[in-house]
Design goal:
Elements (H helix, E strand, L loop, with lengths): L17 E4 L7 E7 L6 H8 L9 E5 L3 E4 L6 E4 L6 H22 L2 E10 L1 H12 L6 E5 L17 E7 L7 H13 L5 E5 L7 H13 L1
Parallel strand pairs: 2-3, 2-6, 6-7, 7-8, 8-9
Antiparallel strand pairs: 1-3, 4-5
Length: 219
Amino acid sequence: MSGTFEAHTIAASVHGRYLIRSSAEEGPAPLLVGFHGYAETAEENLDALLELPGLAHWHIVAIQGLHPFYRSRSGDLGASWMTRLDRELAIEDNVRYVGEAVTRIKTQVEVAEPVVFLGFSQGTAMAYRAAAGSGHPSQGLIALGGDAPTEIFKGELDGFPRVLIGRGTEDEWYDEGKMQRDLDLLTAAGIEPATCVFEGGHEFTAEFYQAAGRFLNGL
């Protein structure tokens, strides 16, 4: 682009969406909140979460990113949590959005501890951010195939939940080095995460589902 210009931003209201699969039992129930990967939808994320074993008595929620788009080849709808453009503002918007969504969810279903955030791929960063700054105390965080956002380690992490990190041995995006960096950051913050390194790629697998189920049951 030629010439001189100034870039400005302006706050705007947009509508987000989330899906709820309520507990099969009446009364207060634990809450699992999921965050999808890049170009996925809340529907796809909910389908993945429903494969977790032993969660019939949990409320399960899938929150969709605020930035929908059409997948170029198929034309199907997907969504993203953010891009590099105005990233810091997008982080603020997303954390506020997730906090308001969980507040609304708690008026729609009766929630009891534990509350757990689960992120896959790009959604992993949102799960960390939700645990650190959504205003909703949580007892568990499950991160699959995505790294921890470094900005959360600049503040206090008192009360940060127990963490399970999952990685496929053939995952080229979330490789061994990135996982080790996250382990080092968490350990330095006084958090000792559990891990599940499984045979597979950038995906949910049966081995990971079993590990996540044990983690949730342990809460």
